[in-house]
Write a structure and sequence with these properties.
single chain; mainly beta; seven-stranded mixed β-sheet; flat
């Protein structure tokens, strides 16, 4: 069981697309010899487009380079509009319209146009090639500054246009009016640049909870943490409180055989609680985290509301998992836990034991897989990773669902399984993140094999955000025909909820991976195939993990599974009651910031079952 649980942990990968960075380009519009509009910025853009014979969108993702054609219109006397136009290889262009009013100026309209070419938009619908499209947003207020000043903002700023175009600006320096001596006037800096940097890690604290009956320590915790919480100030502005976990926080709580809670309280009005659960046969884990606080100084300077108690809890999670109830858990790597869009915590240097503490000392460590990436020597066939630490995401274990394809009123294909899909993707700052998505039911379509046919297909669409396509094949065999999964395809839509901090050009686009020429879930075609042991497969930027599988793609009788052919791995599972399921909630993500390596595509851990 320990091997099975550890196989669920994520291995990281570095996306090559995250390595390229846009350059800061200077643009000038002149009136005669005099520069009258001046701009410098990075601009990365993404354009989503439909592909031929596919429900998966493509995306053209690139950035502007020096050397593009620049033209524009400067504002004359008593005129209040200035325009900057950039033509990129006659294949796409950008039009920035600036407006001056009330002694200040701002970007008021932004338009992007592009021509579909085979180089930039591969596999697009043929009728699109050599046609021109555009998107425009008006009545906006970006890059605002007083007259006589330039606007400066180094922080990244994202703007989505109507539907298919997303822009990411960086290192913006603009002056569309009143340029003097061909150079920028003194700048007004954006608020984002004045945000203080996050604090460095504080020293981890040691927090022990004592059993009142025995006088012995019953919970041991060593951890560091940084808190990031948005709040409203007296000036009706939103600020972010950033503070660390003090080493003198006071531990309280309750020990138990199967449940335990430890609460750390500090600064009088702030506490964080970890609620733990132990399965007597297999493992223990932190099932839920809760923070309770009052927004008042010193943690929340100039807070507007100082007498209201707030409480935030995570949805059920299973982080900090030890594979033995009497073991401790250790993870030095950073782990980001989001309570909401306005509150999150980064944990680090965690060592934790919530059950079966002996002699007030930590038991044998169960080291998190992320720390092992740092310390375990790489196999000789794989280069040792040299990439810096980058983010990875872990997630809640999914729930089993039943999927049916019907021919008329009769079920002709059946499947039950749990599916977890981990996707690695680039952040806006060039780092790498990973998120895990659960397939929790959905719309099922497919094609059953009729008489004489040997291919069956099942497709599942979950809320138009995640979907899979399963292709099964039947072969002649002796004494029975056999069936197996021959191709697996997964697709996903980049959304802000499921892919936080992503490169903006990815949002609202669709990615996919396909595993072909496989022989998974093999069984005689009059039987179903069953396997509780997880199957894990890494393919390019995606890892899939399937649990508790039972499938029957052919010869379904009476709308139910036929007797199953079980995989050999299940014969090694320990006996005992099943692990209680952990309920899940859409959109909940638990993130771990981890180092990246270069994984190799992994073969199926389930060998074919001979009929």
């Amino acid at each position: 069981m320990a091997t099975m649980l550890k196989s669920l942990l994520v291995v990281t990968v570095l996306l090559s697309s995250a390595l390229a960075q846009p350059e800061v380009v200077r643009y000038e519009v002149k009136k005669g010899e005099r520069v009258c509009l001046l701009a410098e910025f990075q601009l990365e853009f993404g354009i989503r487009y439909p592909q031929v014979d596919s429900n998966i969108s493509g995306v053209f993702d690139s950035f502007l380079h020096a050397g593009d054609n620049v033209k524009g219109t400067c504002a004359g006397d008593d005129q209040n509009v200035a325009i900057l136009e950039i033509d990129h290889k006659h294949e796409m262009g950008f039009k920035f319209t600036f407006t001056r009013e009330h002694r200040s100026y701002h970007l008021s309209e932004l338009e992007v146009w592009w021509v579909y070419t085979e180089e930039n938009f591969p596999n697009a619908i043929p009728s699109l090639y050599h046609t021109k499209r555009s998107e425009k947003v008006s009545n906006i207020t970006l890059f605002q500054a007083p007259e006589g000043n330039s606007y400066l903002c180094k922080a990244a700023q994202r703007k989505t246009l109507q539907q298919n175009v997303t822009l990411l600006f960086g290192h913006v320096h603009i002056q569309p009016f009143d340029v003097v001596q061909n150079d920028f006037s003194p700048p007004v800096e954006c608020a984002e640049d004045s945000t203080p940097p996050p604090p460095v890690h504080t020293t981890p604290g040691h927090f022990n909870l004592t059993d009142n009956n025995t006088g012995e320590a019953c919970i041991l915790l060593q951890a560091g943490a940084e808190f990031y919480i948005d709040y409203e100030t007296e000036l009706n502005t939103t600020e972010q409180a950033v503070f660390g976990l003090p080493t003198d926080a006071i531990p309280t709580g309750q020990c138990g055989r199967n449940t335990a809670t430890i609460t750390l309280t500090f600064s009088e009005d702030f506490s964080i609680s970890a609620h733990c659960y132990a399965d007597p046969f297999f493992y223990w884990y932190v099932a839920n985290l809760t923070i309770t606080y009052i927004e008042k100084p010193p943690l929340f300077p100039h807070a507007k509301v100082t007498n209201e108690t707030r409480s935030l809890s995570t949805e059920p999670i299973n982080i900090y998992t030890a594979t033995g109830q009497g073991e401790s858990y250790r993870c030095n790597s950073n782990q980001l836990v989001k309570f909401s869009t306005a509150a999150s915590i980064v944990f680090y240097d965690v060592k934790f034991q919530a059950f079966d503490v002996m002699n007030s000392t930590f038991s044998e460590e169960d080291v998190c897989e992320f720390d092992k990436v740092k310390t375990t020597p790489a196999p000789t066939t794989i280069p040792k990773p040299v990439t810096p630490p980058e983010p990875v995401t872990s997630h809640v274990r999914p729930t089993n669902f039943r999927y049916e394809v019907k021919h008329g009123d009769d079920v002709c294909m059946l499947a039950m399984f749990e599916l977890l899909v981990t996707v690695w993707y680039p952040k806006a700052d060039g780092a790498t993140f990973a998120t895990s998505l659960q397939l929790k039911g959905g719309t099922v379509t497919g094609t059953c094999a009729e008489s004489g046919q040997n291919v069956a297909v099942m497709q599942i669409d979950h809320d138009h955000e995640l979907g899979i396509k399963l292709t099964f094949t039947r072969e002649d065999g002796t004494p029975h025909n056999v069936s197996y999964l021959s191709e697996f395809e997964v697709w996903y839509v980049y959304t802000e909820d499921n892919f936080p901090f992503s490169r903006p050009s990815l949002y609202n686009t669709t990615g996919s991976e396909k595993v072909a020429n496989i022989r998974w879930f093999e069984a005689p075609d009059m039987n179903s195939y069953a396997c509780k042991t997880p199957l894990q497969q890494t393919q390019q930027n995606v890892m899939i993990v399937l649990y508790n599988v039972q499938v029957q793609p052919f010869e379904v009788k009476h709308n139910d599974f036929s007797p199953s052919r079980e995989c050999p791995e299940d014969t090694t599972l320990p006996t005992g009651p099943p692990v209680p399921p952990v309920s899940t909630a859409p959109g909940h993500i638990t993130t771990s910031l981890q180092p990246t390596t270069n994984p190799q595509p992994t073969p199926s851990p389930h060998p074919s079952t001979s009929p």
